[in-house]
Specification:
Elements: H1 2-29, H2 31-34, H3 41-72, E1 76-82, E2 85-90, E3 93-98, E4 108-112, H4 120-149, H5 154-170, E5 176-177, E6 180-181, H6 183-191, H7 195-213, H8 221-228, H9 233-251, H10 256-266, H11 271-289
Amino acid sequence: MKKESKLIPYLEWITLFILILGIILLTNKLDFARNLKPDTTIGKYAMVIGIFLSSFVVLGFHELGHLITGMIQGFKFELFVVGPLGIKRENDRIKFYLNKNLGYYGGIAATIPKDDHPDNAKKFANVLLGGPVASIVFAIICFLISYFIGKPLGIIFYTGGTISIAIFFATTIPSKTGMFFTDRKRYQRLTKPGKDQEVELAILRILGNYSKDNSYKNISKNDIDILVSDDIPFIHFFGLSSLICYQLEKNKIIETQVLEDYREASKNMSKNIVKAFDKEIEKYKEKILN
């Protein structure tokens, strides 16, 4: 059984590769797609630039699917980033900013529960589905537009639709991209009873309770312990950062062992993630101790 489980990620990525390759081959076979290609040199340059820009639009639409679904569910807006452009909540105010974090260039959206409610799990499961559904809808829209407008802009919309389908596959076929679970995998973890569901629910409870008053005083230590004991590096790291803030709130000090564990766990994270978490911990320390 263990050998089979180790093969699953490879089979998922092989499946993804075959599907994307199939899209490319299908595109080359279709007369409609070939006829959309520009004939002039200027048109070709415009096509390349248009495709480059449309890729960000496609990524943005996927993340917008998550964002809008979350806000419809009653979650609180926190972050929306695509490429160099970002919008975030800072000190309960919405702020536009220039994103310098390359890790966010592929797009990210975040909405969190306003409180710890029993329906949060179901609501967040809907949020996870919002992105892939948005990608499929956007692909259909792009293909229809490319069909009706033809040259010279048709190829840009056609490529945008193709990229959108590829994103749909990339967020539903593999279980992970990098260190993070894909939309499909998180949905499964959240809706299937067991240890993984407990971890996902603990994360939601922590976020929901923290949102009540930007404090850890209503957060259950048991939920934090669930995350700290998890063997997935990012969840373990997130649990330790939460434990640090919890100890600051409760005792005004951080246990030496917890801090050492946090620094050790940091070695398995990207520098951008560690920097972001360190910054939040410092802000919380100043808030509690000053």
